[in-house]
Amino acid sequence: MNKKLLMLEKLTADGSVDPFHWYALALEYRNLERHDEALQTFTTLRTRSGDYVPMYLMCGQMLDKLARKDEAREWYEAGIVAAKKKGDSHAAGELEGALGAL
């Protein structure tokens, strides 16, 4: 099995509060096309660390690819709000571009 996946699953199962661990796990699931687990992990991350801006674009892109446009739109819109709240105009621009392309 994938050593990176096992390590990330262990870190998060052991209660890691580092948002990057959750983000990396969600991306690993996404890369393995385990979309339900990826979405669940992105959602957990959003609940725990809603200000972790990169997750919004990555989850939105995954949902868009799966033709789940309404869900993708919701993630992009929430990400724009989070990015603007953090003063991250670059991320907000990327998210607005992705939203416009839906």
What does this protein look like?
The chain has 102 residues and is an all-alpha fold. 79% of the residues lie in helices and 0% in strands. It has 6 helices and no strands. The radius of gyration is 13 Å and the shape is globular. The termini are far apart.
What keywords describe this structure?
102 residues, mainly alpha, 6 helices, 0% strand
Summarize the structure.
The protein has 102 residues and is mostly helical.
Distance between the amino and carboxyl termini? 35 Å
The count of helical stretches stands at 6
Number of strands: 0
**Tell me, what's the shape?**
globular
Estimate the helix proportion, in percent: over 70%
Structural class: mainly alpha
Mean pLDDT: 96
Q: Secondary-structure element order, as H and E? A: HHHHHH
Largest sheet: none
Q: What's the Cα radius of gyration? A: 13 Å
Low-confidence blocks of residues? none
Task: Name the quaternary structure.
Answer: single chain
Strand content: under 5%
Topology:
Elements: H1 3-13, H2 19-31, H3 35-48, H4 54-65, H5 69-86, H6 89-101
Helix pairs in contact: 1-2, 2-3, 3-4, 4-5, 4-6, 5-6
